[in-house]
Write a structure and sequence with these properties.
Elements lengths: L13 E2 L12 E12 L2 E5 L4 E5 L11 E10 L4 E10 L5 H12 L2
Parallel strand pairs: 1-2
Antiparallel strand pairs: 2-3, 2-5, 3-4, 5-6
Length: about 110
């Protein structure tokens, strides 16, 4: 009998605001925020609801003040959580106000 080949897929990322991240429920999140500080292997972003440091395994060519979208894994700790970045996208010429208005309309449908 042929063995079934299991394909493991990543969980989809869920769009969240930093203030609404729940490490007991959230596994992968999608965040949009402005970079307010950088280190060689991490960035700190602010989305208007809070600030969050996101760790990456490599040096990033990201500058303070850039608007970014990050897909990250949430790792629960005893009294908080750690955020490990999986992907980052620079959002040059992105109209954040229009995006927020559209999200609000969709949420109210």
């Amino acid at each position: 009998m042929a063995q079934e080949k299991l394909i493991k897929r990543r969980l989809p990322s869920v769009e969240k605001e930093i203030a609404n991240i729940n490490p007991e429920i959230d596994v992968r999140v999608r965040l949009i925020g402005t970079v307010i500080d950088t280190t060689p292997n991490s960035i700190i972003i602010d989305d208007g609801t809070g600030k969050l440091e996101i760790y990456f395994g490599e040096n990033l060519n990201i500058k303070q003040g850039q608007l970014v979208r990050v897909i990250a894994r949430i790792l629960p700790l005893i009294d908080s959580f750690e955020c490990r970045g999986e992907a980052i996208q620079i959002l040059d010429d992105f109209n954040l106000d229009l995006y927020k208005k559209a999200r609000k309309i969709i949420k109210n449908l």
